[in-house]
Amino acid sequence: MEGTKRMLWIALAVLAVAAIGGVTLAVALVRQRPFPASVGYIHGAVGLAGVVLLAIAVFAHSQGMPVNSALLLFSLAVVGGAFNLLFRLQREPPPVFMVILHGGAALVGLALLLIGVGG
């Protein structure tokens, strides 16, 4: 069980780094400031790695409702991120409402994960 708790903390840290990158990308989008596509790809890769770590921890041992809910929200955020990626691959900015939904789901998931791990 101690290993699972450690993995949850690592997932939280990785997802927090992805969130910082995501907020930076969202601000650049709203301000219409261009950024290299590689920054978005790195954000997605780090976020996906965090979600995979979280999923491994959740499926290894049963977790409380906040952690399970966080995994659900992060899974939805991955779908939203894939949607945003499709726009980027077409060399178009993603719709702002989709960026807000993607980021909102991830940030609420991050808060729930913090509650679940810290509690």
From TrEMBL:
This is Uncharacterized protein. It comes from the Bacteria. Keywords: Membrane, Transmembrane, Transmembrane helix. The chain crosses the membrane at residues 38-59, 71-90, 96-117. The keyword Membrane applies.
